[in-house]
């Protein structure tokens, strides 16, 4: 790579930072500019829905550790508004154009907003995605609201509910699906999370939709009107409705990008609208949609911490021309969540699983490993406070072993595969 080569990283969060570090490590000696929409230096996001909400961590105390001597130019508080491939330039919202020879797209996601803009603007309605979101919500919780309503029982919603109960706040959690985390874990394992919610005192209401949020004359939220009748009084509402991938700035740029992400090949090279790689342009992290050997239904995009790091490093190797011999990006998907004093970890992909078996421990004890199968092959494993077996299952998943892959282990009781109970079409709040 020529020393004069100019690299731009659009996105100043985990994938962008680790990608910039990897570029230097792979020998890039030219200038590297990191563009970030937020004004804050890069920080870690997982604590935002956990320790920040309980007050155990400060929003401004989550800085990502970075290597010294990287010689990066930071353009924080600058939003990318367009990409001019012909001129090889990133266009900022200010109209400024930043020329590049190499480009890493790592713009990630943002919280899906409450669908009604007028209701979303009511004081007391929150989302959780960035540092400022978490700071505002923490202040609202510290004020001691009479009740918090959380809409959406995915990971963010359940973690926020856990944080609220940790600090003693009454909380109602509503979700249209039959069990929390049903779209990821299925209702069989999701029922364990349901038990945790109710044991902690959460007013959990499955199969429930919010028809509208209602405010008072001062413009502050006071209640949620439920579809089918009834209301929930609440002074704070948290919309935990999932994420939106930040791809709008790429409209008209000639790359394959839509609400599902930026399309890439196995080496993280961004594809154009004809499906061909764009020279010198890669993507990584939450925004990147790519083929993975475990994803049988087409390209996927992951929102996992470890994935953002590993894919950013792979993308940097591609930009530096050093991807030969590494093969396409195929790191094992993995995630973790901490809620209600339980550590949940997963490897593989549960998508499309047609069977699940509890191979260690038991659902009743809430300490177990559940293994998922699809068409006779092992595709994922999830542990609740029981991580010892996960590396072994990860190896079996990678090898495409038959389901269930490990039998007769010393700590294994009798088990029978069952229907995981995934919703036919995961409901959206």
UniProtKB/TrEMBL annotation:
Keywords: FAD, Flavoprotein, Oxidoreductase. InterPro entries: FAD-oxidoreductase/Apoptosis, FAD/NAD-bd_sf, FAD/NAD-binding_dom, FAD/NAD-linked_Rdtase_dimer_sf, Reductase_C. Its cofactor is FAD. It holds the Pfam family Pyr_redox_2. Residues 7-312 form the FAD/NAD(P)-binding domain. SUPFAM superfamilies: FAD/NAD(P)-binding domain, FAD/NAD-linked reductases, dimerisation (C-terminal) domain. Transmembrane segments: none annotated. Gene3D superfamilies: 3.30.390.30, FAD/NAD(P)-binding domain. The keyword Oxidoreductase applies. Residues 335-401 form the Reductase C-terminal domain. The keyword Flavoprotein applies. This is Dicamba O-demethylase 1, ferredoxin reductase component. The lineage of its organism: Bacteria, Pseudomonadati, Pseudomonadota, Alphaproteobacteria, Hyphomicrobiales.
